[in-house]
Every structure is written in C-alpha cells, then in structure tokens.
Design brief:
Layout: H1 4-14, H2 25-33, H3 41-51, E1 56-59, H4 66-80, E2 87-90, H5 94-108, E3 115-118, H6 124-132, E4 137-140, H7 142-151, E5 162-165, H8 168-173, H9 177-186, E6 192-197, H10 202-211, E7 216-219, E8 230-236, H11 242-252, E9 258-261, H12 265-277, E10 282-285, H13 291-302, E11 308-311, E12 326-329, H14 336-343, E13 353-359, H15 364-374, H16 385-421, H17 428-434
Parallel strand pairs: 1-6, 1-7, 2-4, 2-5, 3-4, 5-6, 8-13, 9-11, 9-12, 10-11, 12-13
Helix pairs in contact: 3-4, 4-5, 7-9, 11-16, 12-16, 14-15
Bound molecules: adenosine monophosphate.
Adenosine monophosphate is lined by residues 36, 39-40, 43, 63-68, 320, 322, 348-349.
C-alpha cells in the first residue's frame, strides 16, 4: 500500500505546469504574470498536441481557459517564425472578439505581438488603416472580415498559418455559415486549425470535416455540464412580484457582483432604470446599444464601478467577466441551452458562484426542461415573503419612474433620428416632447 507521502507525490506529479506541457519560458512568465499558476484542464489536454502542430477540436465549457489553450500555441509558433497576418480568430460576437484580443495582448506583450479586432459597428476606414499595418493576429466576426476581404485594397490572408474558430456552434447558429465558407476559400489549405465549441452540433461536425485535418479531440466536460463549484437555485414566485423579489435578493446578497439576464432589450433597460432608481449601481448591456456604449458598460462593470450588469443573451456567452459572484435569470431562458451559457458567467476558473433562476407561473415547463437538461433537481433559494412584501411600495414607485424614463429615452432616440434625417425639422424639440405622454411604448428585440 502506498504511504500518504507517496500518494501526495503521485498527486503532485499529475499537476502539470505550463513548462511541462511544452510552453516556452517567455510565455510561461506571461502566464505567471496573469496569475495563471497552473494550466486548466483544457489547457493540459490541448497545449501539448497543439504545440506539436496538430489540428484541434476542443469541446470546453465557458470559463475553462480555452482562449489560453489556443493563444499560447499560436504565440509560440509566431515566436519561432515571425510573420504578419499569422493567425485569424473567428468569433461570433464583438465583445468576445475584444476579450480574445486582450488575452492575446496580455500573453504576448513581452514578445511584441500586434493584434487587430475586426468587427461590425466600428468605422471601416479605421479598420482598413489597422489592417494596413499588417498585424500578426486578427480577431474578427465573420461578416465584417468578409467586407474587408472584398473591399479593402491590398488586404488578403493568403499567407495565414493558423485559423481558430471559437464558439463554432454559435458562429454557425448565427447564420454565419456562408461567410465561414467564403473565408475558408481564401486562406491556405496548408495551415493549422483549432475549432472550439461548447456543443458538438451537426453543423459543427460538418465544419470540422471541411476545415480540419486529422484533428485531436480535447474535451473537458460531458455535453451539457455546469461547473462543479456552482450553487444553482430557483425561486418560484408570482410574475407580478418579480421586481420586488429581485430587489430583495440584491439586498440579501449585497456586496457581490451580479449579472442579471433579461429576455429582451426593453426589459434589460427597464430593469436597469428601476434598480438605479432604487440606488443600485446597475448598468445595461444589450444589442440595441451602439458598440461604444456596450463596451463602455462592460468596462465599467469590469472596473467594478458598477456591481450589477443587466444583459440579454447577446451578452450571455463568451464574455470574460472574472468577478461575477451571482447570476440571476430574471427572465427564464427560452432555450434551455442558454441556461448553461448564462450560469457559465459565474464559478469560472475554479472559483465558486451562485445562480438563481426566477420561475413564475408561466415558466414551469421551461424550468422543468432546464432541470432535465442539467440532469438534476435544483433547491429553492430561501426567501422571507413578509420582507419582500415590505418592499413592494417603493418598488412600485421606482417602476413608475423607470417606465417614464424609458418612454423619454425612446422619444429622445426617435427625435435624434428625425433630426438626423431632416435638418430643418420644423417640429422642434418641444413639439416632440409633448408627444411623450401619448407616445407608444417602443418594442425592443433582444
Ligand atoms: P476563457 O474560458 O478562455 O474565456 O477563460 C476564462 C478566464 O479564465 C479568463 O479570465 C482567463 O484569464 C482565466 N484563465 C485562463 N487560463 C487560466 C489559468 N491557467 N489559471 C487561471 N486563470 C485562467
């Protein structure tokens, strides 16, 4: 029988370092500076094979450290054979693109890596200038990259060495299939390809066959698993008291950082206004905000000047927000897979976290589907009904204000659009403002 000492030695042996996985010294130092003490599971699996030059299909849960798993081998190869337009990373969303770029820059700062983000919603001209500088790594959403490949003089990816498709399932679900096909046609066949996806869908399998050569599969979780250190709860409440219960929970868990998911842009905005009226530092993030505002929101939340981020599913995947303590599903997700992605915002990289899902009389079936998907029954989050009821009056007042502000914001937007369209609009600001009281509530889509 092995002694305790021997057992400890065996355990220690199984904990690998970045160096043992084949990462070169300068990049090991970069990991160390980022506070990455040991590689995560996906990094342990993917790094040695990727560093040997194999293609990879990575099935990894959100927050698993997958960006490091593909960025390190690319940076190491770049060190060995420096070249412009060396790697292309395709991602489904703009936010994710910026986060990936941040990780590349953080890991590669000491080797002087240059990255450019090419996403929609940002000036094409500025991006063309950035491309003219010939960066080493491009992180892009497929649509905008195609725009540049077709219209930006002198830009091509004919010398590309590495292609990464991150969150491939999501890229394909967002109907970027044609764009991805087009991109595959204009990059060299002789390249390395890493495909990462949370789920292995039929479309992803098809893409794998089309784009990867004899890939090694690296999977760190079974299909729809949520991370181990996540405490998941639900609360079952009447729909009309949702706001009061939300305020109660935010008070109960004060001191934490929260990410609250709503199903529409409108409700995200409304709930943010409601919470602000009640003195919370809440900030919205949704698809109806322009790119600068979205990044601004995200940065304020990251810098911890705001403790509550309200978001639609646009923001539910891929966001790198390391300090989310609690995820609240204020509106239950209609697609149960989104549940996994939403709660994946907390309990990241070995930390613990909580999620609380609001279930009203209308949501029972959806909730049962979620429980079925994750394969377990969730406990109820303890609440004191009398305390919640004591909040209803203040909440009702804040709701009234929020509705008013929302209407005013809608009108203001409409007004600035009208002003942009007709410079000499005779109606004037007051005339428009007078319409506010009778104005229709604008419907926003997620
Ligand atoms: P990702 O899944 O790539 O979005 O990474 C999630 C978070 O984990 C990011 O904040 C990374 O900075 C962090 N991370 C990645 N690798 C490690 C590691 N080996 N140790 C600690 N944190 C890590």
């Amino acid at each position: 029988m092995a002694t305790d000492m021997e057992r400890e030695e065996v355990l220690e042996e199984t904990v690998k370092t970045f160096k043992e996985l084949g990462v070169t010294d300068v990049l090991c130092e970069a990991c160390d500076q980022l506070g990455w003490k040991t590689p995560t599971k996906i990094q342990v699996e993917a790094l040695p094979v990727a560093l040997q030059g194999r293609d990879i299909i990575g099935l990894a849960e959100t927050g698993s450290g997958k960006t490091g798993a593909f960025a390190l081998p690319i940076l190491q190869a770049l060190l060995e054979a420096p070249q412009r337009f060396f790697a292309l990373v395709l991602t489904p969303t703009r936010e994710l693109a910026f986060q990936i770029s941040e990780q590349f820059e953080a890991l590669g700062s000491s080797i002087g890596v240059q990255c450019t983000v090419i996403v929609g919603g940002i000036d094409m001209m500025a991006q063309s200038l950035a491309l003219a500088k010939k960066p080493h790594v491009i992180i892009a959403t497929p649509g905008r990259l195609i725009d540049h490949l077709e219209n930006t003089k002198g830009f091509n990816l004919r010398a590309l060495k590495y292609l990464v498709m991150d969150e491939a399932d999501r890229i394909l679900n967002m109907d970027f299939e044609t764009e991805v096909d087009k991109i595959l046609k204009v990059i060299p066949r002789d390249r390395k390809t890493f495909l990462f996806s949370a789920t292995m869908t039929k479309k992803v399998q098809k893409l794998q066959r089309a784009a990867l050569k004899n890939p090694v599969k690296c999977a760190v979780s079974s299909k729809y698993q949520t991370v181990e250190k996540l405490q998941q709860y639900y609360i079952f409440i009447p729909s009309k008291f949702k706001d009061s219960y939300l305020v109660y929970i935010l008070n109960e868990l004060a001191g934490n950082s929260f990410m609250i998911f709503c199903s529409t842009c409108n409700n995200t905005q409304r709930t943010a206004l409601l919470l602000r009226n009640l003195g919370f530092t809440a900030i919205p993030l949704h698809g109806q905000m322009n790119q600068n505002k979205r990044l601004g929101s995200l940065n304020k939340f990251k810098a911890k000047t705001r403790s509550i981020l309200l978001a639609t599913d646009v923001a539910s995947r891929g966001l790198d927000i390391p300090h989310v303590d609690v995820v609240i599903n204020f509106d239950i997700p209609t697609h149960s897979k989104d549940y996994i992605h939403r709660v994946g915002r907390t309990a990241r990289a070995g930390r613990s976290g909580k999620s609380i899902t609001f279930v009203t009389q209308y949501d029972v079936e959806l909730f049962q589907r979620i429980e079925h998907l994750i394969g377990k029954k969730l406990p109820a989050f303890p609440t004191q009904e009398e305390e919640v009821m004591m909040l209803t009056e203040r909440v009702a007042e804040a709701q009234r204000f929020a509705r008013m502000e929302l209407r005013q914001q809608g009108e203001k937007k409409k007004r600035s659009r009208e002003e942009a369209n007709e410079d000499d609009d005779a109606e004037g600001a007051m005339g428009v403002r007078n319409k506010v009281a009778g104005g229709k509530k604008k419907k926003w889509k997620a």
